[in-house]
Amino acid sequence: MHERIADGIFQVGGGAFSSPSDCLVYALDLGEVVLVDCGCGPSWPRIGKNMLEAGLGDPHTLVLTHAHVDHIGAAPAVVRETGCRVAAHELDADAIESGDERLTAAGWYGLTLETMSVDHRMQGEGEVLEFPSGSLHLLHTPGHTPGSIAAWTETEQGRVLFGQDVHGPFSPSFGSDVDAWRTSMARLLDLEAEILCEGHYGVFRGKQRVRTFIEEQLDINR
Ligand SMILES: [Zn+2]
């Protein structure tokens, strides 16, 4: 099961696509395949099958938007099976590598994470990953966790933003900072994305709808 979101961009995991425990998992064909997050782990075979169905080969790069287990749990298996590189922000990379039960929220899910390596530690505010047929912009959006990142790319259908956990939630146990999050959300609004791919709430289409969703979250977490 997969759904085409825009040219070369697909949802391949989350909910009925793989498991309700998983975050929504997105895959991009930029000449090389990029996976944005990968779910808890047990459902990885379904996600891999969904990618094949969508005509996508093995991922070249796995971007982990933050350290939570529902986004990273499958990463060790993905790396073992495909040899892809893993990218994450340096402020969440230690938690990802160690599988820290509190910072990854694995304790909440009753899961245990394998240790793993982050090959590419993003530093600072932002950077651009270049691929044969496009670029993926990474933006540091701290708040939900210290090293949360968003990613965006340009398509024929407009700018597509992978905001993932725009909605939070926030907990001191994994280092949330609501003030930092508000600043991060202002940066996402400035992108004026045409399509927002969220981590749990689905895909929002149209600049106004994207803006409204982010502003609603800002209202809820006042
Ligand atoms: Zn999260």
Per-chain topology:
Blueprint: E1 3-6, E2 9-13, E3 25-29, E4 33-36, H1 44-53, E5 59-63, H2 69-72, H3 75-82, E6 85-89, H4 90-98, H5 106-109, E7 120-122, E8 126-131, E9 134-140, E10 149-155, E11 158-164, H6 178-190, E12 195-198, E13 203-205, H7 207-220
Parallel strand pairs: 4-5, 5-6, 6-7, 11-12
Antiparallel strand pairs: 1-2, 2-3, 3-4, 8-9, 9-10, 10-11, 12-13
Helix pairs in contact: 6-7
Short recap of the structure:
By secondary structure, this protein is of the alpha/beta class.
Q: How does CATH name the architecture?
A: 4-Layer Sandwich
What is the CATH level 1 assignment?
Alpha Beta
Bound molecules: zinc ion
| Rg calc | 16 Å
SSE order: EEEEHEHHEHHEEEEEHEEH
Q: Helix proportion of residues, in percent? A: 25-40%
Largest beta-sheet characterization: 7 strands, mixed
Structural class: alpha/beta
Query: Total number of β-strand segments?
Result: 13
What name does the CATH topology carry? Answer: Metallo-beta-lactamase, Chain A
The shape is globular
Primary descriptors:
seven-stranded mixed beta sheet, six-stranded mixed beta sheet, Metallo-beta-lactamase, Chain A, 7 helices, binds zinc ion, 222 residues, 29% strand, globular
What do you see in this structure?
By secondary structure, the chain is α/β, with parallel strands linked by helices. The chain has one domain (3-220): 4-Layer Sandwich (Metallo-beta-lactamase, Chain A). 28% of the residues lie in helices and 29% in strands. The protein contains 7 helices and 13 strands. Helix 6 (178-190) packs antiparallel against helix 7 (207-220). The structure holds zinc ion (ZN). Zinc ion binds at residues 66, 68, 144, 165.
